[in-house]
Amino acid sequence: MNPTISAVIQGWYLPDPTTLSPITLEVFQKYTDLPTDSILPHILAMRERAWKVYPYPCIGAFRFLDFSISESPNYAALVTRLQHGATLLDLGCCFGQDLRKLISDGAPPANLYGADIRPDFIDLGYDLFRDRSTLQSTFLAPANIFDDAEDALLATLDARMDVVHIGSFLHLFEYADQVRAVRRIAGLLKQVKGSVVLGRQIGSLKSGEYPHPTNKKQTMFRHDCETFKKLWDEAGGEWEVDVELQMTKRETGQREPVFGDVDVRWLRFVVTRK
């Protein structure tokens, strides 16, 4: 591996925490049968296993413990909607941690779907949350919207989802591929008013193509609010786009530069079909 790339990846690997956030403890206490003092060692061991599969920033920096879907606007209303029969797909679900958060808050497992390009992460999710024999949600892998064969798995969900959640997903691609992605995601939604795409990703005060940290042949487009709205205009159809840039945070509460870029922000969004 290129030494510069290797150094960037190692920078994503944060030291082991000595405590867990209240939300993390709550989810694991409610969802698993682990004693409280065993939860942190269990999580640390699972991170080691996942890092060897693929060193994503969300693994090294423990972002899989953010349960970011619960920070979405109207999260309580989303849970209620699922309780009344709505379906949700978490695209690029990693361990399926956001699905477990929804379940711990009362969402019916059978209404939830997860899809990821890496089957190993879904498998690790069963071990992380200790629910291999009990979870009634559906997982699809490998699921790749840019590969015709692997996209066939996702096609079984076409026009069936009330909600699609995409966390830390679109920002992995250049602008042209993001247009392709949102058009494909739109096809997964029910073709009715009120179907929703929600999530968060890396954005920037200065929108544009940025170098890909692990592939010099690719770029990653980071949006500000206006370019993100333009993206959905290009997706076709009519959408109400609610989007904002937020400061990124670590548990210390300090702003977290990503790839050394002080203009980076979290971009959080809710996109609703009109």
Automatic annotation (TrEMBL):
Record InterPro entries: Meroterpenoid_MTases, Methyltransf_12, SAM-dependent_MTases_sf
Alphabetical UniProt keywords: S-adenosyl-L-methionine, Transferase
Pathway given in the UniProt record: Secondary metabolite biosynthesis
S-adenosyl-L-methionine recorded as keyword: yes
Pfam families (UniProt xref): Methyltransf_12
Residue ranges of every copy of the Methyltransferase type domain listed in the record: 89-191
Annotated family: Belongs to the class I-like SAM-binding methyltransferase superfamily.
Protein name, per record: Methyltransferase type 12 domain-containing protein
